[in-house]
Amino acid sequence: MDKQRVLEQYDRELRREVAPDGVGAVVDRAGGVVRQDGGELGWSAVLWSGLDEAGADAAIAEQLRYFGERGRAFEWKHYSHDRPADLADRLRAAGLVAEEPETLMVAESAAQAVPVVLPEGVWLRTETDEAGIRLLGEAQARAFGEPDRAAGMADQLLARLAEAPQTLSVVVAMAGDEPISGARMETLPGVSFAGLWGGGTVPAWRGRGIYRALVAHRATQAVARGYRYLQVDARETSRPILERLGFTALSVTTPFQYEP
Questions:
Q1: pLDDT at residue 203, rounded to an integer
Q2: N or C: which end of the chain has fewer CB within 10 A?
């Protein structure tokens, strides 16, 4: 993989020229910043910035003003290759709070679309419906120990399901009637990258190939829908697994959160 070329393609398709990810969302391009206003229930974020040292602080202040006036929390998606080099420090100085860094990892979809292998007694629930989203939220709450965040994620996905169901795919690994792992795939029209999100497995079932099975299932879907690449924002717990599967690290992304 030509890492620089793919990273430039990712920046162009999913940051600079990205379409809104929901019917109620709006993407604005103002100066050196691309932002999404997701409305009351959707995800609001600064998706891309092309800033220099002279204008960075004013651009950050403008985003705080814009979202603050609307009472919106928002996320500034910072990447390690963004400029200026001290942008992360400037975001902290402006009052945004950094969460755990994640690694942007990419793989060819076709290379990951292998047969799904599951432990005995485990099956995949693949219906993308309200029940599946609720099961996904339950699995991720148990996997990550963040029930409030999982509930908020489920509410956002239900809104997305109602507005743009073709962009969302949910899969939940079940042991009998118990959700033990879950993940989703998000796809936008006109881009080359299918986004893989989630993949958390409850502790008792880790190390048994379930995460790999969820990747393979979604990769097969991505190939069928014409998406060349898979993209993951990987936590440190999943990065080694993805590296073994053949994913390539392109950058490090840190979500900076702002609460008005």
A1: 95
A2: C
